[in-house]
Automatic annotation (TrEMBL):
Source lineage: Eukaryota, Viridiplantae, Streptophyta, Embryophyta, Tracheophyta
Protein name: Glucan 1,3-beta-glucosidase like
Length: 354
């Protein structure tokens, strides 16, 4: 007896072991060519990141970020990982054995199931019937590791009908425009929550990553779409007397986000804000990770009403474990004062938080 999976909302990295040959599915060369089943142990090439499309349908992303599909744009039966953009021909159904949920079959877009004919030949041409035994080349044992527990995963799991109902209580805690009217707050920091980014700027669930990948800034397209959002928000709030500052992005992560792409975005984002407001401060967040805390100074030096937002975190290092409060303060002063002191000689305000 088989049943479609109702799980896999947050599970991230999947590995599929053929029960007939005892080897793992593998995207040869990490992607761009065929799928084989000849690896005794699973590493990066044998790991598939699941994109959940619906309760039963999924797309499988390989190490080099191509998607598993069928040869000849879905018209063949050989299983490959060649497409950079997933579509219907890269969408599969994962069917679990209701008596052993670690046993699955993978139904291809052509309506047939993947099977391992040999260690070097995986095809999508197996019919529906199965006993789920070790003699069925279409049966795989799965294991997975890693989870993303962000709002994207939750809403994707519940789907477009149930998600708004279930998430309404959570969304009702968000700060909205009317809150500023009630409390007469004198500032608003726009866009710090980066859930609207096209691709994650850090690879974490709280930065809207779908599969743990960090891809924001890699293309002009996702940079421009983010600028469009900044333009929309600036236009919306520009005439509001409570508008004090607009932060263009919060905590882009280095080295995945390059200084070159970030500078390109900050220039365009600054222009978008200035198109609607000449008085609002424009906040530019420094990158987290390896970076020079002064790397944005050359860009900001020629602009007006700029804030450089620098975040220093001590809690992510074991160095401060066991320190007293005063020792922690002394450590921060010794290790972070150079970035702070350098701001004393520049012509724009700097905000140092966290």
């Amino acid at each position: 007896m088989a049943s479609p999976t109702k799980t896999f909302w947050m599970e991230l990295d999947f590995r599929f072991k053929s029960v007939t040959v005892g080897k793992f599915l593998c995207a040869e060369l990490g992607g761009g060519t065929i799928i084989v089943a000849n690896r005794s142990a699973a590493s990066t090439w044998e790991t598939f990141r699941l994109w959940r499309i619906s309760e039963t349908n999924f797309q499988l992303r390989v190490f080099n970020k191509q998607f598993v599909g069928l040869k000849n744009n879905g018209n063949g039966i050989d299983v490959v990982a060649e497409s950079n953009t997933p579509g219907s021909s890269e969408t599969f159904e994962i069917v679990r054995n209701s008596n052993d949920l670690n046993r699955v079959r993978i139904k291809a877009p052509n309506g047939l199931f993947l099977q391992v004919k040999t260690e070097d030949l995986v095809t999508a041409d197996r019919q529906a019937g199965t006993s789920w035994g070790d003699d069925d080349p279409s049966v795989f044992v799965i294991n997975f590791s890693g989870r993303l527990e962000g709002e994207f995963q939750v809403t994707n799991g519940y789907g477009p009908v149930k998600a708004p109902q279930i998430m309404r209580e959570h969304w009702n805690t968000f700060i909205v425009e009317d809150d500023f009217k009630v409390h007469s707050w004198k500032w608003i920091k726009c866009c710090e929550n980066t859930c609207w980014l096209v691709d994650s700027k850090a690879g974490f669930e709280h930065s809207s990553s779908r599969d743990g990948s960090q891809e924001w800034g890699l293309t002009d397209g996702n940079i421009q779409q983010t600028v469009t959002v900044i333009d929309f928000l600036s236009a919306r709030y520009a005439k509001n007397p409570s508008l004090y500052a607009v932060e263009l992005i919060n905590e882009p992560f280095s080295p995945g986000v390059s200084l070159e792409s970030l500078t390109k975005y900050y220039k365009a984002g600054y222009d978008a804000v200035r198109k609607h407001s000449s008085t609002a401060f424009v906040v530019m967040s420094n990158r987290l990770g390896p970076m020079d805390p002064r790397e944005l100074f050359p860009l900001a030096n020629g602009l007006n009403r700029i804030v450089i937002d620098v975040h220093y975190y001590n809690l992510f290092t074991d160095t401060v474990n066991g320190m007293t409060v005063q020792q922690n303060i002394d450590f921060s002063q010794r290790n972070q004062e150079s970035g702070v002191e350098s701001s004393h000689h520049i012509k724009w305000p700097s905000y140092f938080g966290r």
